[in-house]
């Protein structure tokens, strides 16, 4: 039995069913969060809930559950799952609407909230290319929230795999370096750690914020040629940090142990 | 009873249920088509199916149904619906995947195909502004297929409604005129009809292709100031053409009757 949480109830996943008129399915009208569970404890919950609400607000989706209800739901699923280390995904959509069209009347809105736990995949050293198929849209507010609109990232990932890499660096519309397909990019250039500012069309990652403090990272605009100057690199998201061991035709050393990146994923004092 | 078609079976919509692990719901990993039914007949079916397959191919989603099966499904739903004029939506996704991550192994792919009929809304004269919240991404192949990634269009529509308009003209990353939130934009400037080329980040609409022929429309790059030079304008999609009667602070005449735009929506000889 694999339990999931759907609109306030824990049910077996075989019984969890969505309406095909859900606007998350029809129009990517929603947001999500992916939360690391380590030693049985979900990390950075307050920050995840705050970002979920910020994204929902950007799309104009009400969140008719308080943090406590989501917290209890996550705790129950995690405890039932038996995984001490796992990934929790929380998905919020505007919910089902039988009305056609982009914008349903407000009184028709019954949001969907879905929570599930999955096993965590191992940290894999990344071999990166630069995606040529598509780019991040720095003009879109969606680039700075965790919306369901993942199509461009899917295309970039597919291109990377087709070309024999594990992932791709995505450029933005200006041709500057933005991020990877599921995480923020950190580069060591001339001895200094750098990452792109959010205005370049990137998600303000929760691990990213912690790494900026931990490694005194500078938020600077990074042009594409700078990728070739990197002497070390890694990619971060809320689940893990992965070393980049190959970037734009050059091998790079794995600095993750020396930098003690794993220590980031620990429960913080309130 | 309202019937829908889900993965080859006609069921009542109350029984049509998707897995919350469907990648259409989780990551906007899919495409759709919206098809006009007029006098009981679905229009432009071969073109709609071809565009659906082109979009699926762009995302690497197999389509395990032939055109005949989809055709029969649509005909059954239309006949049961009792609507002589309606809108059919066909949605294709990569289907459910319990595996986390952007790219599931190919042997885990079981696409979802969902078809539903809805009543057609009346043609409403449009009052347009220019969206400032977000822009089309002309670097993304998704801008030229009918993908589920509708977030930017939702934001632009919401902005328009919040500011007292019915819809918005969307610019692209270069600041040029792209399209409206659910249709292609046509402008009459100095006596000539123009529309943006697909390279500006717009969907190659099926009505658009027919209008280009009918009105000898020129596909040209349109900068934002050109909007103020328009002496007539309308927006088209596969369901209908709507006149634009207000654009960037100026009233415009409704030319739809004179141009006989409705005649576009008729069954074509094979």
For this entry, what is the oligomeric state of its chains? homodimer
What sort of overall outline of chain A do the alpha carbons produce when their principal axes are compared? globular
Given the structure, what is the number of helices of chain A?
6
Strand content of chain A: 25-35%
Strand and helix order of chain A: EEHEEHHEEEHEEEEHEEEEH
Low-confidence stretches of chain A: none
Largest sheet of chain A: 9 strands, mixed
Number of strands of chain A: 15
Most extensive chain-chain interface:
A-B, 58 and 58 residues
N-to-C CA distance of chain A:
34 Å
Mean pLDDT of chain A: 95
Helix/strand-derived class of chain A? alpha+beta
| Computed CA radius of gyration of chain A, to the nearest angstrom | 19 Å
Helix content of chain A: 10-25%
Descriptive account of the structure:
The structure is a homodimer of 270-residue chains. Chain A is of the alpha+beta class and 270 residues long. Chain A has 6 helices and 15 strands. In chain A, strand 14 and strand 15 form a beta hairpin. Chain A is globular. The mean pLDDT of chain A is 95.
Summarize the structure.
Chain A is an alpha+beta fold. Chain A is 22% helix and 29% strand.
């Amino acid at each position: 039995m694999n339990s999931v949480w759907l609109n306030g109830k824990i049910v077996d996943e075989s019984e969890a069913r969505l309406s095909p008129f859900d606007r998350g399915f029809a129009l990517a009208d929603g947001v999500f969060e992916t939360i690391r569970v380590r030693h049985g404890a979900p990390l950075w919950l307050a920050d995840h809930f705050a970002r979920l609400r910020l994204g929902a607000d950007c799309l104009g989706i009400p969140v008719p559950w308080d943090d406590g209800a989501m917290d209890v739901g996550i705790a129950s699923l995690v405890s039932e799952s038996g995984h001490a280390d796992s990934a929790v995904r929380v998905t919020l959509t505007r919910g089902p609407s039988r009305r056609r069209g982009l914008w349903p009347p407000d009184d028709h809105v019954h949001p969907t909230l879905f929570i599930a736990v999955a096993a965590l995949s191992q940290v894999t050293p990344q071999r990166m290319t630069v995606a040529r198929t598509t780019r991040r849209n720095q003009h879109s507010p969606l680039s700075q929230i965790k919306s369901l609109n993942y199509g461009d990232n899917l295309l970039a990932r597919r291109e990377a795999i087709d070309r024999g890499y594990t992932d791709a660096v995505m450029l933005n519309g200006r041709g500057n370096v933005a991020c990877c397909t599921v995480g923020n990019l950190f580069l060591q250039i001339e001895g200094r750690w750098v990452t792109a500012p959010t205005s370049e069309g990137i998600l303000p990652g929760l691990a990213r914020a912690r790494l900026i403090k931990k490694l005194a990272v500078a938020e600077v605009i990074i042009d594409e040629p700078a990728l070739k100057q990197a002497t070390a690199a890694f990619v971060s998201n809320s689940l893990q940090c992965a070393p980049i061991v190959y970037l734009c035709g050059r091998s790079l050393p794995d600095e993750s142990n020396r930098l003690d990146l794993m220590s980031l994923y620990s429960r913080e004092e309130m």
